[in-house]
Amino acid sequence: PTKQQLLYEGKAKKIYATDAPGVLWVEYKDSATAFNGGKKATIAGKGRLNNEISSLLFLKLREAGIANHFLEKLSPTEQLVQQVTIIPLEVVVRNVVAGSLAKRIGLAEGTPLEAPLVEFYYKNDDLGDPLLVEDHIAILKLASREEIDQLKREALKVNDVLGAHFAERKVRLIDFKLEFGRTADGAIVLADEISPDTCRLWDADTNEKLDKDVFRRDLGSLTEAYEVILQRLGGESACT
Ligand code: C5P
Prior knowledge:
This protein is an alpha+beta fold. The protein is built from 6 helices and 14 strands. Strands 8, 9, 10, 11, 12, 13 and 14 form a 7-stranded antiparallel sheet that branches. It has a 5-stranded antiparallel sheet with strand order 1-2-3-7-6. A two-stranded antiparallel sheet has the order 4-5. The longest helix has 24 residues, at 145-168.
């Protein structure tokens, strides 16, 4: 396919149309944002790292039978994906207390959860992406009850597959955010990206943070942390 007009520019990615029906061209940008756009930076190499990592993880999930929008990596910073209509929900799965859960319920960051927790947040910048209960999702008509159950089941499957995959590579999957979309025929598939921007990943031996908290909390070099994740996943390093 060839790249056509820009359809959408978000905080971390640009989405272009292509001449192939139902196929979009995604370009990962070198920008980092946190706190609903309150903190911003340009970080050279971040787009490549997230494109490489997200491509590897979507392929891994496909192998495990989890349908997703990923089609093909085109270049270090670009990939082709299936066009879907994104459901404006952030589906968060947590294995260990961190981030907003620590703030919300007062347990210390690092406390393991006995069972994975699934949460839904409303993708709405004006509202600051609030936590939703299932009745809110129904009132807003974002998804049916059956679809909510499906989203939860899929999110927990992703957690099983990625949790085991990272564990084999000495990385703890603390929590992560997923987005889903509807295809033209109404099927729900996993979409967006899965990267250290959207996951909390801690080194299994040292609990060193290898994810976007490095940027959020000024803990050091984001690209060094993401490079560790890419290498452990078997990806290509920039410097050889
Ligand atoms: O901030 P919070 O603790 O709720 O984040 C949970 C997980 O979801 C983290 O891995 C975070 O990186 C991810 N997340 C995200 N995009 C958001 C909010 C959270 O990728 N808008």
